[in-house]
Amino acid sequence: MAGDSVLSGLLNGEWKHLSFEPFREGVEVHYLRTIDPVWALLRYRPGARVPRHRHTGLETIFVLEGMQSDDDGEYAAGTMILNPAGTEHSVWSDSGCVVLIQWERPVLILE
């Protein structure tokens, strides 16, 4: 990937060369920006989930690979999901996936 302000190669898999660290059980993270808004890549193993949580700011997700699911549906690669402040959901991936995610504000875990 090219510098801190340029994200190239996300759609052709260049993210596969990045290092990831534990985020939640079965989910790993690579932070692209750690101050608000936070930008990261999340890699879900098959069957991984993130517990029910409430958004305190806008969350934007772009599915890069695989299928991500939440309480409202399933989202294939190429899908963008917007979760406004105040919304709640659980997230999982039955088959595994990688998403680009942006949080305006931290989420509040409810479970």
Question: Could you describe the 3D structure shown?
Answer:
The chain is mainly beta and 111 residues long. It has a single domain, classed as Jelly Rolls (Sandwich). It is 0% helix and 56% strand. It has no helices and 10 strands. Strands 1, 2, 3, 4, 5, 6, 7, 8, 9 and 10 form a 10-stranded antiparallel β-sheet that branches. Strand 1 and strand 2 form a beta hairpin. The radius of gyration is 13 Å and the shape is globular. It starts with 20 loop residues before the first strand and ends with a strand. Residues 1-6 have low confidence and may be disordered.
Q: Which features would summarize this protein structure in a list?
A:
111 residues, mainly beta, Jelly Rolls, 10-stranded antiparallel beta sheet, 0% helix, globular, disordered N terminus
